[in-house]
Write a structure and sequence with these properties.
about 230 residues, elongated, disordered N terminus
Length: about 230
Amino acid sequence: MSHLEEETGTMTSNAYERLATLDTPSLCDINKELRVFSPALRPIKDGLKLFGKARTVSCKNDFLSIIESLAESEAGDVLVIDGQGGDRALLGELFSAECKRKGLGGIVVDGACRDVQGVRAMSFPVYARSITPMAGYCRQPGAKQIPIICGGIEIKPGDIIFGDDDGLIAIAEQDLDALIDAAERLQQVEQRVLGNIEEGTSLISMINIDEHAEKIRRGEESKLSFAIS
């Protein structure tokens, strides 16, 4: 068992390692109702994956409660922050470095970040709505470990947060294993399709487009799917 699994004891065994081999599009293809964060929240550095349990914070232009949450956080947590529309940075290089030191899975802030050159250099996954040099204050308590709205969706403490270059999604922990199982099967099929394309097979010949389109025109239920042996 990995260190990360030991630190997140209620997680299903090796779930994080399996997530690391997947991507957000695969998971979204399995469940069209997944909670997807606003595309306005973007990674400070591309090429990283974020995953872990949400530790929620709600504050505006003041990072006192974020410092408290950082002190209370455990390895495998992801700080998920509702910045309430504020325009001052709620985190930067120092907070990100401490999160990395403690083994957190990342930070998601529906608000501003700063020190982006330093954050990029440490290769720690941080997502933010905006970037500004002006820091927030540290004198007003916010709310911690409550349901929040971040990136336009509701996040509850303990939700699984997963992000890559395509965006961020939230998953209820009880749904994680089944979702991963299905996404892994889909990924295997897609890898076969890509291999066939590289060998010269047409993509169109490997999907049920004719049958699907005809059923749709007749007003029947249908689903576009791969048709490979």
